[in-house]
Amino acid sequence: MSSGPRWVVEGRNWPHRATSRFVETPGLTWHVQQMGDGAGPVALLLHGTGAATHSWRDVMPLLARDYTVVAPDLPGHGFTRGRPQGGLTLVAMARAVDDLLRALGQVPAVVVGHSAGAAIALQLVHGRGDGVPVVGLNPALMPFPGLAAQLFPSLARMLFVNPLVPRMLAGIARLPGEPERFLRRATGSALDAQGLRCYAALLGNAGHCGGAMEMMASWDLDTLSRTLPAITAPVQLVHARGDVAVPLASVEKAAALLPHARLEVLPGLGHLAHEERPDLAAALIHAHAQQQRERVG
After folding, report:
1. What letter does residue 55 receive in the DSSP assignment?
2. Which of 1, 92, 211, 273 meets the CB 3.0–4.6 Å disulfide criterion with 86?
3. Please, are residues 285 and 112 in contact by the beta-carbon 8 Å criterion?
4. Burial track 267-291 (b if 16+ CB lie within 10 A, e otherwise)
């Protein structure tokens, strides 16, 4: 696989660059951003497939008023390098994030995941068994419907093993205006100029594209869907009606399977709702975390 984006090149104007550091765990060198005074409870933010820490660029400062905010680039994405034992499977990614938390000496008070990051968040909390509240934003938790359930992982796997495909996709992403057109078609969201620049830098890199494709090829939402009834942590799911990537019906199904889940549906936003309305996302995260603290305290 090609190398990913370079910190000294694509990362030179990265949002909140001053908060970034690189942390070693077995097999991985993580790019992590941390914000807040260090005294508040820890909010762990996990981005979705194809994204990176920039996805939280406007949410982080809002949460940092009350939380110690920790946001990593997931393996295969952004400026994180290496490979977790077990590859980019859901279970392996969750274990790798747990390793990172131990290396940072942090225990999350709330775990927030966007899209596929919500699946990692639930798998992480289930594995830890500590009942930490979870917020899933436009969560991708259920298998693809019908024939796509069998075809999509196989197709992603075939594309991933062909080294020309990530390079081809990255080349297309470098065409003028293509990142904006792609994101609009794929997510239903309209992003600001900074967000578009970051996605263009990532999607125009073959290594990042290859990492996202490997993650999709390795994903096992069938197993996760069978695990959902055993996840006892309090879960707030938030979906947007304009999301063209994840059907509302699949989120409703996941909410019904989770023993302690609530679902809120937002009007007028797309799959990247937290980037379109960071104020709303931060308020929902804070409200859920605060409610759970009050309930147990």
Report:
1. G
2. 92
3. yes
4. eebbbbbbbbbbeebbebbbebbee
CB atoms within 10 A of CB 40: 15
Q: Which helix (H) or strand (E) holds 289?
A: helix 278-296
Average pLDDT over residues 198-202: 91
Kindly indicate the confidence band of residue 193, based on its pLDDT and cuts at 50, 70 and 90.
Answer: very high
For CA atoms 269, 275, 280, 283, give the dihedral sign: positive
- E strand or H helix at 235: strand 235-240
Two tokens, residue 131: 């009942």
Q: Which amino acid is at 259?
A: P
* DSSP SS3 for 264: strand
Helix (H) or strand (E) segment spanning residue 292: helix 278-296
Rounded Cα distance, 85 and 98, in Å: 13
pTM of the model: 0.92
Give per-residue pLDDT as tens, 212-264.
888 887 888 888 999 999 999 999 999 999 999 899 999 999 999 999 999 99
> What value does the mean pLDDT of the chain take?
89
Q: The tokens of 172 are what? A: 């297309």
